[in-house]
Amino acid sequence: MLDQGAPPHDRTATAPASPGVAARLMRRKPVERLVAEGGQGEGGSLRRSLGLWQLTMISIGATLGTGIFVVLGEAVPKAGPAVTLSFVIAGLTALFSALSYAELAGTIPVSGSSYSYAYATMGELIAWVCGWCLLLEYGVSVAAVAVGWGEYLNELLSGTIGVTIPKAFANPPGVDGGVFNLPALIVVILAMVFLLGGAKESARANTIMVSVKIAALILFCAIGFMGFKSGNYSHFMPLGMAGVSGAGATLFFSYIGFDAASTAGEEAKDAQRDLPRAIMLSLVIVTALYVLVAAVAVGAKPWRSFNDSEATLAQIMKDVTGQSFWGTLLAFCAVIAIASVVLTVLYGQTRILFAMSRDGLVPKIFARVHPKTGAPRANTVIVSLFCGVLAAAIPLGQLADATSIGTLFAFALVNVAVVVLRRTRPHMKRTFRVPLSPVLPALGFAFCVWMMGSLSTVTWMVFGVWMAVGLVFYFVYGYRRSRLATGDGLAVTAEK
């Protein structure tokens, strides 16, 4: 601050010098400014049209996808009947980070999710790294899930009308005779069309798709229960607690996506009230469904008979009823389930880019909002085409694990951000507070770091290259074009 009583010539002499590079890298964006800018884009604004149920469905849509349809075949051999306990452990692990997301989503109800939370608490460079991680997570996730959609579509067409998509157009180049994965591109384009109609229309379509897959899992439980044999639980934990925890680590990634509602912070009708509720409610619903499906599956089929097969649930339904119709039905539901994941994850990526563009860290085109629909059209088209071509033309292989490392890194930062904001802004209004802070956020951070350490060397190499590219882009483009680089933004370094 300048001395208000100093003569004019003294004021000039004592004017503070421009902040150094380190200070500019650590500049924070005040929460009040983040919230005040909420919804505003180039040429228009996002529309607050989403209620609690729609927000909850967005998170469920992003979480409840291929995982439950394929994960049991991999997890049951590790834990035996105690796989139900593994789901609970994985859910509790996710809960630590979910609590932190809930507090920050209610305190900072904006579109950027963990990127915006980091910007308000840890500074611009950390926010950029977080946002860059999210772009990797969401982009690769959309592409990987779209590839899985094509596989289930082929299975559905084969079981209903006897048609199989030629391998040349059902796989990416170099994979089983593939040239161009057309179904993967198609599902991304379909999601793009819904998103261009606006958040409300996209949320309505997602709600229908989520309802279908929840109904399918409940139907599985009803049919599977008819073949339930209590003897299958006679040795509940045959592989000990080590097997239970090992399966829990595998199952954790079935919970990734519960944070999707936080990307809708500027399109929620009552963000501070509904975002924390949506995040927690979605996690509870998903965990309950996972545990119920696992309990019925193990009760209907001896655990030693499970194998790493994508058709585990369909096979159980066929064994119980003696009819192959159920495999076709499950394939149809999987097509719907995966399509909703593509829609909600693509939605999340466009909103994160919207927030980064508004802050000046990426080109302005990503923050342009169409005045009629309230959707960032150019953003949606660019992201969709990029992800669609990535899925159709590039074999992802192990690169799909990049989804996990990007997610865990963002989760870890959110747990840190909660503690930092509690210390720097203790009197700020919070509609939800993490209990036992900082203990639970610390546990959330520790679990994320532990799981990141269990990922493969290839995944870490991809992550390192991606981070290097991101830092080059930031220093070449974002560092100088950041809106906080102007005089009115420098005051954030002294935020109290």
Give the tags.
mainly alpha, two-stranded antiparallel sheet, disordered N terminus, disordered C terminus
Account of the protein in words:
- The chain is mainly α and 496 residues long.
- The chain has helices at 8-13, 21-25, 31-36, 52-63, 66-70, 72-79, 83-107, 114-121, 124-160, 182-196, 199-226, 240-251, 271-300, 312-321, 325-358, 377-393, 402-424, 439-453, 457-481, and strands at 40-41, 44-45.
- It has a two-stranded antiparallel ribbon.
- α14 (312-321) runs antiparallel to α15.
- The longest helix has 37 residues, at 124-160.
Q: Give the overall silhouette.
A: globular
Strand order of the largest sheet: 1-2
Mean pLDDT: 85
Largest sheet: 2 strands, antiparallel
The low-confidence runs, each spanning 5 or more residues with pLDDT under 50, are 1-17, 487-496
- Along the chain, the helix and strand elements come as HHHEEHHHHHHHHHHHHHHHH
**What would you report as the Rg, rounded to the nearest angstrom?**
24 Å
Give the % helix: 55-70%
Number of helices: 19
The proportion of strand residues reads under 5%
Question: Total strand count, please?
Answer: 2
What structural class is derived from the secondary structure elements? mainly alpha
Distance between the termini: 14 Å
